[in-house]
Amino acid sequence: MTRARPRSPLVRTILFVTGLVVMAVSPLVGVIPGPGGIFVFAAGLVLVLQNSVWARGRFVRLKRRFPRFGHYADMALRRRSFRRRQQRTRELVLARAEAATLGFGQDER
To answer: Per the CB 3.0–4.6 Å rule, which of 6, 15, 67, 81 could disulfide with 51?
Structure first.
C-alpha cells in the first residue's frame, strides 16, 4: 500500500478551517428534520482530524477516557487501527472456539 504524498501546509490549513466551519454549521443543518446535522458534523470532524496533529492528540485522549465513543468514532472514520482491532477480536474468538472444541480451556475446579 503506497502512502499519499504529504499535503502542503497551505492546503492542510484550508482543509482544517473548512472542517471547523462545517462543524460550526452543523447545528443549523440539525434544525432541518432528519439526521443531517450529525453527518455534517462528522464530515467536519474528519477534515479536522485528518489535518491537525493537535486535534488528533485531543481525540486520542477523548477515546482513552470514553472507549465506547472511540469505538464508534473509529468505525465511522474507517481507521486502520479499528480494522486491526476487529481482526484481532475475530481471531481471538476463533481461537477460543477451536480450543473449546478440542477440550482445552475448560477448567475443572
So the answer is: 15
